[in-house]
Amino acid sequence: MKQESAAQNTPPPSQHPQDDCDPQDDCDPQALWIFGYGSLVWRPDFAYSDSRVGFVRGYSRRFWQGDTFHRGSDKMPGRVVTLLEDREGCTWGVAYQVQGEQVNEALKYLNVREAVLGSYDTKEVTFYPQDTPDQPLKALAYVATPQNPGYLGPVPEEAIATQILACRGFSGHNLEYLLRLADFMQLCGPQAQDEHLAAIVDAVGTMLPCFCPTEQALALV
Fold this sequence. Notes:
Number of helices: 5
Largest sheet: 5 strands, mixed, barrel
Distance between the termini: 27 Å
Shape: globular
Structural class: alpha+beta
InterPro entries: ChaC, GGCT-like, GGCT-like_sf
Number of domains: 1
GO molecular function, one term: gamma-glutamylcyclotransferase activity
Family: Belongs to the gamma-glutamylcyclotransferase family. ChaC subfamily.
CATH topology: Hypothetical upf0131 protein ytfp
Order of helices and strands: EEEHEEHEEHHH
Main location: cytoplasm
Radius of gyration: 17 Å
Region (Disordered): 1-24
């Protein structure tokens, strides 16, 4: 398996007054930022006021969480991502700002989607927008820890690819989840790197002789 800690090409850390706030923009108690790094990057499914592409430091994304609802079943759990604490890590995603009534509505929805059905806990992270990395924001992230019952943990990327190819849940095929995440990373540009994700995509490619580009593959799942 590839090295778990890899340095990334990201701007140097900087201080900003928002670092002293809760996960809110400008310390506004009616505003909250929510960081998505998995399916939330393409399907948030809640109302929001603003969204920004960017990254968080100190974490690496890993397909180590089992999913028995959205992308798998009780008999065949799918593989979805969580965040692994990694001093040299950097994870790209999307931060969504919710304001006023949107805050309670979003948290209520995500509690079911991420906590109840996914066994994720909440964690505060510092988010660096791609366009303004010198103006970080506090954000709320949903993280699956090793203590939750659905945690599957590390295995070789080839084994993860095999599991992904075999699983489907109520939200669709596990392969769709992998390819949409890979597509998002390509849109972020060359500075956005995820060796773990790329290794799984490569493994899928070797297992499917007629494996086609992302857009065409998505049409098949």
